[in-house]
Amino acid sequence: GIPPARRHRHDPVRGHGPPNPRGRPHVRPPPQRRRRSRPPRASLDHAPGHLPL
């Protein structure tokens, strides 16, 4: 059914695109460093129903 060369392109088991061109070992690219999102500003306790201006 499937020509063997094509089969590896998106193989869910091996994943990550085509088999490595050239003989370099297949290394996963380093994980993206997630920017530490600043925690939500600690809201001072406001009177109920009061929107801070």
Please explain how this structure is put together.
- The chain has 53 residues and is low in regular secondary structure.
- Helix content is 8%, strand content 0%.
- The protein has one helix at residues 4-7.
Structure in a nutshell:
The chain is 8% helix and 0% strand. The chain contains one helix and no strands.
What's the pLDDT, averaged over the residues?
64
- Beta-strand content estimate: under 5%
Residues in helices, as a percent range: under 10%
H-E string:
H
The shape, in one word, is elongated
Number of helices: 1
Radius of gyration: 25 Å
Total strands: the figure is: 0
For the largest beta-sheet, the strand count, sense and barrel status come to: none
Structural class: little secondary structure
- Weakly predicted, low-confidence segments: none
Query: Whole-Å distance between the termini?
Result: 67 Å
Biased composition (Basic and acidic residues): 43-53
Biased composition (Basic residues): 1-11, 23-39
Region (Disordered): 1-53
Topology:
Blueprint: H1 4-7
Features:
single chain, 53 residues, little secondary structure
